[in-house]
Amino acid sequence: MHAYRSHTCAALTAANVGETVRLSGWVHRVRDHGGVLFIDLRDHYGVTQVLCDGDSAAFAELETVRSEWCIRIDGNVKARDPELVNPKLPTGEIEVYVRELEILGKAEELPLMVFGDQEYPEETRLRYRYLDLRREKMQKNMTLRSDVVASMRRRMWDQSFREYQTPIITASSPEGARDFLVPSRLHPGKFYALPQAPQQFKQLMMVSGFDKYFQIAPCFRDEDPRADRSPTDFYQLDMEMSFVTQQDVFDTIQPVLQGVFEEFGEGQKVDADWPQISYKDAAKWYGTDKPDLRNPIKMQDCSEHFRGSGFAIFANLLENEGTEIRAIPAPTGGSRKFCDRMNKFAQGEGLPGMGYIFWRDQGQGMEAAGPLAKNIGPERTEAIRQQLGLGVGDAAFFLGGKPKAFEKVAGKARDVIGEELGLTEKDRFAFAWIVDFPIYEADEETGKVDFEHNPFSMPQGGMEALEGDPLKVLGYQYDLACNGYEILSGAIRNHRPEIMFKAFEIAGYGKEEVEKRFGGMVNAFQYGAPPHGGCAAGIDRIVMLLADTANIREVIMFPMNQRAEDLMMSAPSEPMSDQLMELGLRVIPQDQ
Fold first, then answer.
1. CB burial class (10 A; 0-12, 13-18, 19+) of residue 426?
2. DSSP string covering 451-465, please?
């Protein structure tokens, strides 16, 4: 018999009754039934109930074991009495009578329990991550992650992609976030960087004649943490293709991601129709470039109904250039109680409140109620109702000013309204391509033009587009949103050196600066670069959605905390003096 096990803790069934078996695992739970010990023995695969009484030579030693001790038992498989069968367990028809016991590893008093669903502070969970990972939910999450990655690989290979690896140590190259720098011992005073993404290398592969590339790529960014973002490193499904249009990229990646969500979505509906929404319309309709389309609410511009109206706040706002009044329809939200709740939400977001109108039945017909309705009168109120397609029992909320100043709050309000009124459809994955991103923006105070989004995407219209108003230039850049999260970003690349130099010139970067920062790629583009494009899908965020959690640390094996610290391994740590000397570095104390 094997030294540790003949079966896993999920393998035994009624067909094994009468056999002598060996199991190894962790003591999940101990129950003492007056001279008979019952232990749930757990391994990665499942749980088997083992029992022992005073007739067994192992009884005295088994009485000493506690939760999370690692043990090995030998015993006989017995059928459970019919009334004691546990249909929830694959091993629920049997139990194992223990004849022999070996303690493989004792456990001290536990800082967190593995058995049960107790909640523990995240600091405790991350400090003792090896215990946290023993819990059933975390075992499932990590297995899901592994299976998702394997599925992605298979699906990419099935589309004739090959996986290639790109360097982990490279040159610093601004990608929109801070680099992690690595000092060079052989070149004192110089630094490498961990790659924020394989961006330049995958484009260079296309120049090298490799037609299709993908990689499950580690990326490193020194970012401020969020619940849905790791502050140090993450993984992405990275891909690039030559001789493709934007639509070719969409048609290639959709079956991969849609297939993954169908395979691991546990029966939830996975939309097959992925609409393409311009960045401008996404902001206008949803207040965000990562809209949750499970929520049917679409905001609308209602400025004309308030221009010159009796509601002076909005009427005066509209006299300023670039302002508008936007309505957020709220079907079934037509009660003063709900409107007051939304007003409180707006105040929590730093606004004085949120204008609203709600429609109610007064017995002699429909009536519009609320402060706005009184100020603008029945004719304008009715025009708003008809534009929004609302009726009795419905409401609408209003925000005004320059769109960039209120869109974020409006988007949050839309989400809250959809959730509270039960309008947001659960058990569904809804996708949307966000396209036509503007390449440039102007500083409101100085008027200086700079890049708003990816500077390496090909401008729509090429060089000709760059000769006109830069604020009207759109790029072949795209994101994929799912249920309110951005899960993919990509672009058709700007592979023409003359167009690239012009694009950077508009933003105030001279040719020398571009060559200094991106010399390797710019030089390569002068030797017959093909049109190419691709994208990168965030694996951590995709698994987070599939695992139905809003915290990305729940699907990363050993994550950092919100302060970019590894509490388990005590990182970051202070270097030893001889390490600093070897690298020619000195740490300057920071003023407290």
1. exposed
2. ESS-TTBPBTTHHHH
Q: Looking at residue 590, what DSSP letter applies?
A: P
Spell out a b/e string for 250-261, using b for 16 or more CB atoms within 10 Å of the CB, else e. bebbeebbbbbb
d(CA 133, CA 119): 14
Instruction: List the chain pLDDT tens, one digit each, 592 residues.
Output: 899 999 999 999 999 999 999 999 999 999 999 899 999 999 999 999 999 999 999 999 999 999 999 999 999 999 999 999 999 999 999 999 999 999 999 999 999 999 988 999 999 999 999 999 999 999 999 999 999 999 999 999 999 999 999 999 998 875 567 899 999 999 999 999 999 999 999 999 999 999 999 999 999 999 887 778 889 999 999 999 999 999 999 999 999 999 999 999 999 999 999 999 999 999 999 999 999 999 999 999 999 999 999 999 999 999 999 999 999 999 999 999 999 999 999 999 988 889 999 999 877 788 999 989 999 999 999 999 999 999 999 999 999 999 999 999 999 999 999 999 999 999 999 999 999 999 999 988 888 999 988 888 999 999 999 999 999 999 999 999 999 999 999 999 999 999 999 999 999 989 998 888 888 888 999 999 999 999 999 999 999 999 999 999 999 999 999 999 999 999 999 999 999 999 999 998 887 5
Non-local (6+) Cβ contacts of 251 within 8 A are: none
- pTM here? 0.93
Question: Could you write out the three-class secondary structure of 37-90?
Answer: EEEEEECCCCEEEEEEECCCCCHHHHCCCCCCCEEEEEEEEEECCHHHCCCCCC
Tokens of 510: 């001279």
Report residue 109: phi and psi, to 5°: -60, 130
What are the CA-CA distances from residue 442 to residues 343, 452, 471, 478 (Å)? Answer: 33, 9, 7, 21
Separation of alpha carbons 510 and 440, rounded Å: 16
CA 32-72-119 angle, 5° bins: 60
Q: How far is CA 97 from CA 65, 78, 81, in A?
A: 16, 7, 14
C-alpha 359/C-alpha 367 separation (Å) is: 6
Backbone angles phi, psi at 425, to 5 degrees: -75, 125
Three-state SS for 374?
Answer: helix
Q: Is the distance from CB of 5 to CB of 54 less than 8 angstroms? A: no
Looking at residue 195, the DSSP 8-state letter turns out to be -
The DSSP bridge partners found for residue 535 are: 239, 490
DSSP state of 552: G
- Tokens describing residue 127: 């400090």
Torsion 56-57-60-62 (CA) sign: negative
Q: What share of the chain is helix, strand, coil (3-state, %, to 5)?
A: 30, 25, 40
